[in-house]
Design goal:
Largest sheet: 2 strands, antiparallel
CATH topology: SRF-like
CATH architecture: 3-Layer(aba) Sandwich
Radius of gyration: 17 Å
Shape: flat
Distance between the termini: 40 Å
Strand order of the largest sheet: 1-2
Number of helices: 3
Structural class: mainly alpha
Length: 104
């Protein structure tokens, strides 16, 4: 007997949305920790809440960020910051669009 498939759409009730965010955030971090242990890999997870609060997990601490920066993917720390600002801006724009559609 399996679970009912969850419809992927925004949860309208603010309280339910917050509870789901907390549970799924904790589940995501747990899975990241398991992946790290089972496969002996470095894992980093960054999650921004709808209010902009940062939640993070890294099993290798600063070592992961240093590897990311030195890999050539990110040429400098300022580029890394700009990358996160861009991601946050895109997410914020999507939330604004969703809010406009909801208010309709």
């Amino acid at each position: 007997m399996g679970r009912k498939k969850v419809e992927l759409k925004r949860i309208e009730d603010k309280s339910s949305r917050q509870v789901t965010f907390s549970k799924r955030r904790n589940g995501l971090i747990k899975k990241a920790r398991e992946l790290s242990v089972l496969c002996d890999v470095d894992v980093a997870v960054l999650v921004f809440s709808s209010r902009g609060k940062l939640y993070e997990y890294a099993n290798g601490n600063s070592r992961i960020v240093e590897r990311f920066i030195s890999s050539g993917i990110c040429l400098s720390l300022s580029a890394l910051c700009m990358f996160y600002i861009m991601l946050y801006s895109v997410a914020n724009s999507r939330l604004d669009e969703s809010l406009i559609q909801t208010k309709g």
